[in-house]
Design goal:
By secondary structure, the chain is of the alpha+beta class. It has 2 helices and 5 strands. It has 2 domains: 57 residues, no CATH class; 49 residues, no CATH class. A 3-stranded antiparallel sheet has the order 3-5-4, with no helix packed on it. The chain starts with 15 loop residues before the first strand and ends with a strand.
Amino acid sequence: MTDGWDGKPPGGIDHVVVVTHRPEPEGWDPEAPFHFVDGVEAAVAKAQELAGDRMVEVAAGDVGGQVLAAGLIDEVRMDVVPVVFGSGKRYFGSVDAQHLLEDPDVVIQGNRVLHLRYRVRR
């Protein structure tokens, strides 16, 4: 539907790895730096290959929860804002097991936001 944003991922990132069981869409922009893989392990491996010595970021949601459950996440970063919702989606989708995080090693107070960074306890 977006045709790969004409080859420019949103947010200015270099590559996007998409976890899907479907083939690349027809007519996809061949210059778009989007890589389609089947499964979270393949996604992390592809992202690490593309990143080289740089950091790999994983979005939250169901895929993020699957990557966390697979033990492939080293660090969780989250932003807390002063809003209380009555309902919504889980941050990591449906996670079947408990995953402990260390105490936050970075806490940054922003303008109406608190940025937190936690190491995943192994």
